[in-house]
Design brief:
With 153 residues, the protein is an all-alpha fold. It is built from 5 helices and no strands.
């Protein structure tokens, strides 16, 4: 595998200087999932769902010319502070993993040109989409961890 693809896969796996997704959501206390510490615009549930929805949208845009993105910004954020159930929290994590795996298949597959413009886009490349996804996930994982710490102070 060429070094750029390997680097991108590591970045998508959140290896390196940032917390990884599984560590961030592991044993996340149910009583904190709807918590919005003073000054926070979002709860942990909203951040988790936002990450999942944005990742799904980036993945589908990257591979499906017929994909229609949700309305921005409302389509990327759940309205409720709390997950409707324990199952919903776990399902969001499961779907996040699935879509991340699918994105890694695109990035890791040598038949996909990282530099070629996505045919149905307006100049975006798979490389750009992978970098945006990794950056977006890293940013919101940091927020998720900060909310967790703030909620337990």
């Amino acid at each position: 595998m060429d070094p750029l693809r390997k680097h991108l896969l590591d970045l998508l796996d959140m290896k390196g200087a940032h917390i990884d997704f599984d560590s961030a959501v592991a044993d996340f206390p149910p009583e904190l999932r709807a918590c919005k510490p003073a000054g926070s615009p979002h709860s942990p549930w909203q951040l988790l769902e936002h990450m999942r929805l944005a990742q799904w949208d980036i993945l589908e845009f990257s591979r499906d010319a017929k994909h229609v993105s949700p309305e921005f910004p409302d389509g990327y954020w759940p309205k409720a502070d709390a997950p409707p159930s324990e199952h919903a929290w776990n399902e969001s994590i499961k779907k996040f993993h699935h879509d991340l795996t699918e994105m890694k298949k695109l990035v890791g597959g040598p038949k996909h040109d990282l530099y070629a413009p996505i045919p149905h886009g307006d100049g975006q490349t798979l490389l750009r989409e992978a970098l945006i996804l990794a950056d977006h996930n890293s940013y919101h994982l940091g927020q998720l961890m900060l909310l967790r710490k703030m909620a337990t102070l």
